[in-house]
Please model this.
Amino acid sequence: MKSFNVHIVNNKTDVTVDSNTSLLELSKLYRNVTKSTILLAKVDNIERDLNYRINDDCNIEFLDITSKLGFRVYQRSAVFIMLAAVRKILGKEAVVWVEHTINRNYFCIIRGVEISRKLLSEIKEEMTEIVKNDFPIEKLQVSVSEAEEIFTKNNLINCKKELKYIKATSVSLYKINDYYDYLYGSMVPSTEYIKIFDLVKHGDGFVLQFESPKVPGTLNEHLKYPKLTSIFKEYNRWSEILNVPAVCSLNDAISNSEIKELILITEALQEKKLANIADAIQKSGKKFVFIAGPSSSGKTTFSKRLCIQLKVIGIKPHVISLDDYYKRREEIPFEADGTKNFEDLSALEIDKFNNDLLRLKEGEEVETPLYDFITGEPKTAGKKIKLEEGDVLVIEGIHGLNNALTPKIGEDDKYKIYISALTQLNIDEHNRISTTDSRLIRRIVRDHFFRGFSASSTISMWPKVLEGEEKNIFPFQENADVMFNSALIYELSVLKVFAEPLLFNMDKSESGYTEAKRLLNLLNSFLAVNPQDIPTNSLLREFVGGSCFES
Model:
């Protein structure tokens, strides 16, 4: 029998294995190289499930739930088990929609079914039984016509419609006993791997709680974000207006030449929301408008469009950035890795910022600073501002919703806006699109056009960006007076045109290659839209260029 040389990346061990040895067999010998149960592996930097068999010399990195890929596999597999349990209890007429994330857990609804604690208890009991029996999770390759029959039988309408846009002649399905489904990405080998989960009633649906990637062996905390939830519901209403519940419907609009009207309606819905926010600011009588949100939310374009709406109703806006209140570079705190931490609140001149706001409130003229990022010093001349009667100061920056930024400013003077690209468009009933993925694709394109960064560079720095958001933005999002969803239902069809060449250009040896392949698989679900069809004032223009707000 032929054998192969394998390097285990986790513990830097070289071993020889027989041909056709599965990763599952190997994982049992190296179960101690990860913090928790091994769920999948990267083989020569390519994601592989544990059923993959070794037939060449290779490098293997085993992954558990503490890794991003591992956590996604856990989520996907737990969802599959939940779907199988719902089918067993309620039958095929009960269609589950996996809608959005709440603190790394999934919010789900079952169309036409009232969710009770009793029902959730029955579903959880069935899930527990499936896990206890350790059923294999089988991956099958079937023809498109076979898949159509399966989706028809299982009442998965959008999954079936989606097959129209599949370029291949076959598709991969997963199976537990007699339940089949179409889920994107790797799964665990069997149900026994998913031991920790819970179902909690939440609004008109329920939350599927997962094992915590931060503290394996415990549940992710179930947190309630009422304002954020209301924004997702608003987006659902917009989806109904646009008649686009899933990607297949968007692709239908593109292939039927209806996309231009859909784009105009989408943009009009956002413009109406902006106008409503401007009216609310006027009604509040507050002088300081804070805008905060995670990376690639479209804060810059949002600020400019909001200023236009404020001017429409007779309010003169003055705009400043919190970035201009950075301390001198030598005073910026350090990260653990020795780099400067510009995202920490202590990197800002908080006293000066608060004193400037107090003086502006009293009607004084203030020279606010302008920061020189090349020298790491404030520029000699700043920006002179005076707030006349009816004027407002618009302040953009990541700490805008954190009350520790403005200890000297009362709540009666602050109007706080949270903006993020909160994608609610699903690929189909069971495959959601991560809001983080949408923002990452936006940033890959923007970094290429406006900052000269490669896709590899952007993907490499993304975990650090997310870490900063977890600390400095997300804990304060519910402090907002209003939330604005900058996601556009058609945007990935446009971003696909720019992102795909950048992602395809990544080399297999690069650390972000696995992530690039995953994003390419996501974009493959979308038909392309001509970027020329995008209005010049669209938030999307901030990422692809051609904005009327560009100087």
